Amino acid sequence: TGTPMAAYRRLTPGNYHFQVCACNNDGVWNESGASLALTVLPFFWQTDWFRTLGVAAILGLVYGAFRTRLAHLEHRRQLQESFARQVIETEEAERRRIALELHDGVGQALVLAKNHLTSALLACGTSPAQEPLSRASAEVSEALEEIRATARDLRPPELDRLGLAKALEAMLDRIGHTTATRFSSELEETAAEWIRPEAEIQLYRIAQEAINNVLKHSKASEVIVELKQESQEVRLTLQDNGAGFDPAMAGLRSGAGLSGMTERARLIGGAVTIKAAPGKGCRVTVSMPLLNERRK
Q1: What predicted TM-score, i.e. pTM, was given to this entire model?
Q2: Alpha-carbon torsion 141, 145, 146, 151, what sign?
Q3: How far is CA 132 from CA 126, 129, 138, in A?
Q4: How many alpha carbons lie under 13 Å from residue 41 in its C-beta half-sphere?
Q5: Considering Cα of 63, then 67, then 72, then 73, what sign does the dihedral take?
């Protein structure tokens, strides 16, 4: 009646034992039967080494993509930092230029005008021209003071001549005469000798911004400013006893300038720490690492 056949499809790789029992035409079964041992070999893609290689390849691709993404983010961060640094450096250079032009140009012209008016006042005696000349002299003096104040804000002369500590001291003295807020300070002149010269103007701007925030928002009666060398870093600290705020909401406050202070500190290798709470004042600390050796 034909040769009997058995077909098995899609056997997974492995070792098999095939056994057959049959009966004759009289219905008598062969009890021992017949058996056959066989092995189904895997295709190469079914082997363990191929699976291992595949997993390794996938992991390698994922890791490569991750590293590429990190490199891209780092490159973008460096570009942003470079752009921010260029903007700040350009801004400071422009401030210096305008301050010099105001001092040496407009300022000197106003000084000459005031001298001429003073000479005219002395010459006119009690003539009717004395009153308008006197008013003009007073207006020129007022304009000259405004020009000097503007030039000082743009680039404090004390910073270049006397250093950061003296510049901060002069700023606090000027502001203290224009507000009811009491300022006290502990400024170590030698502390700034351990930081790069270009970092001084950034620390000065941070202090300037922090004090402006205090005067605008905190309603503080007292502000303490400290510049100290501590361990392996220089620290600039400004603490007030004002209204305080929630640091988590600081980014929502318009005009606060906190992000600008943080960016300036980061560009000189420093960091800003802000501790504040509603009704408990605010403490702003700027820390930056020391130079390897003290500046001469």
Answers
A1: 0.65
A2: positive
A3: 12, 6, 10
A4: 2
A5: positive
